[in-house]
Amino acid sequence: EADIYQTPRYLVIGTGKKITLECSQTMGHDKMYWYQQDPGMELHLIHYSYGVNSTEKGDLSSESTVSRIRTEHFPLTLESARPSHTSQYLCASSPRTSSYNEQFFGPGTRLTVL
Amino acid sequence: GENVEQHPSTLSVQEGDSAVIKCTYSDSASNYFPWYKQELGKGPQLIIDIRSNVGEKKDQRIAVTLNKTAKHFSLHITETQPEDSAVYFCAASRGVGGSQGNLIFGKGTKLSVKP
Which residue of A73, B28, B41, B88 is surrounded by the most CB atoms within 10 Å? Predict the structure, then answer.
């Protein structure tokens, strides 16, 4: 099983609050990703990173921001949470930047914004 | 844009029967095709993958086939068991451009195996 961790696992928060979802991996992987998973289970890439100090926007536009100060850590922040942000957020990592990216997923954070 | 289509969206089989999930992709430069299994309350887990230079790969009860000409790939599960019940995702790698190597996921198939 992959060593990738997400905290918290569940978060219920009021509108307007600032939140940070944590993601850490102990595998030394260069590339990391954030996905948003909707109730229909479809996975949407919202952010990714090639390595330290690298962040890129994914396929789905998101109001969240990410940072990559350390290789093992890739937190996602929402400055002002809204009900439309309610979703499952999945973090993943992969060991190389070329093709054959085997992505390893964390357990996810289920966010509910009231 | 590039996409991956996955069928069916739901699949119900009797224990012991086989299950087949099919995907098609549009990016002719895709060269990596993983399959993920997601159980309730968990993140997706890689169960098998295939690379473009291989036509078929098998791991115990799970097999994947790839037809590059037709841009089709399929997951085959034989002798299904109740613990195979989950959502399965296919994916294809992006072949070119700045996001090369990123995965494009299908919309998922919810498999139910009835005892």
Answer: B88
Distance from A13 to chain B by nearest Cα, in Å?
20
A102 shares contact with chain B (CB less than 8 Å): yes
Query: Is the per-residue pLDDT at A40 higher than 80?
Result: no
Smallest Cα distance from B41 to chain A, Å: 7
Amino acid B103 reads L
CA-closest candidate to residue A80, choices A68, A66, A63: A63
User: Per the omega criterion (within 30 degrees of 0), is the bond before A8 cis?
Assistant: yes
Can you read off the two tokens belonging to residue A68? 């990559």
A102 and B108 within 8 Å at the Cβ level: the answer is no
Instruction: Please give the single-letter amino acid code of residue A7.
Output: T
> Chain A residue closest to B106 (CA)?
A42
- In single-letter form, the type of residue at position A109 comes to T
Contact assessment for residue B65 and residue B79, using Cβ atoms and an 8 Å cutoff = no
Neighbours of A45 (CB within 10 A): 22
Which has the closest alpha carbon to B50: B27, B69, B67?
B67
Task: Please state whether B60 falls in left (phi above 0), alpha (psi between -120 and 50) or beta.
Answer: left
Peptide bond into B8 cis (omega under 30): yes
Burial class (CB in 10 A: 0-12, 13-18, 19+), B37: buried
Phi, psi of A83 (to 5 degrees): -55, -30
Shortest Cα–Cα distance, B17 to chain A (Å): 25
pLDDT band of residue B101 (cuts 50, 70, 90) is confident
